[in-house]
Automatic annotation (TrEMBL):
Organism: Nematostella vectensis
Highest taxon above the source species: Eukaryota
Listed Gene3D superfamilies: 1.20.920.60
InterPro entries reported for this sequence: DHC (IPR026983), Dynein_HC_stalk (IPR024743)
Coiled-coil region list: none
Gene Ontology biological-process entries: microtubule-based movement
Start and end residues of each Dynein heavy chain coiled coil stalk domain: 10-142
GO cellular component: dynein complex
Annotated GO MF terms: dynein intermediate chain binding; dynein light intermediate chain binding
Protein name: Dynein heavy chain coiled coil stalk domain-containing protein
Length: 144
């Protein structure tokens, strides 16, 4: 009987140690999971804040886009040297549409070549479906 009690107590002690070790692993895994969950929540909060800031700009851009007429596009296309804002917007459109810039001589007279989107922009502005393509652009899947 004493031997049986001794064996039972050894088995219980061994199993208790195994349970304790497993419990420690579970606690560590839970702590790591909680850290990851907190990081994910922080990232989600940051993304939602950025989105809340971007949505009014998107809505304003869509409203402005809806006011454009083909005649407006023709006027912009005919500009030899458009204002900086026009060049900036058209450069952004080219980037969004994966249109590469041209290498042109630096107007500053450095003799170096610079990347210029105005030539490709004028070609893009000549596309009869340009306005439609902007309105139908898949803005939910823009790659970075």
């Amino acid at each position: 009987m004493a031997l049986t009690n001794l064996l039972i107590s050894q088995i219980i002690e061994k199993e208790s140690k195994e349970v304790e070790a497993t419990s420690e692993l579970v606690r560590k895994d839970e702590a790591a999971a909680n850290i990851q969950a907190a990081e994910a929540q922080a990232l989600k909060d940051e993304c939602e804040a950025d989105l809340a800031e971007a949505i009014p700009a998107l809505e304003a851009a869509m409203s402005a886009l809806n006011t454009l007429k083909p005649a407006d596009i023709t006027i912009v296309k005919s500009m030899a040297n458009p204002p900086a804002g026009v060049k900036l917007v058209m450069s952004a459109v080219c980037v969004m549409k994966d249109i590469k810039p041209e290498k042109v001589n630096d107007p500053g007279g450095t003799g170096k070549k610079i990347l210029d989107f105005w030539g490709p922009s004028k070609k893009l502005l000549g596309d009869m479906t340009f306005l439609t393509s902007l309105k139908e652009y898949d803005r939910d899947n823009i790659s970075l």
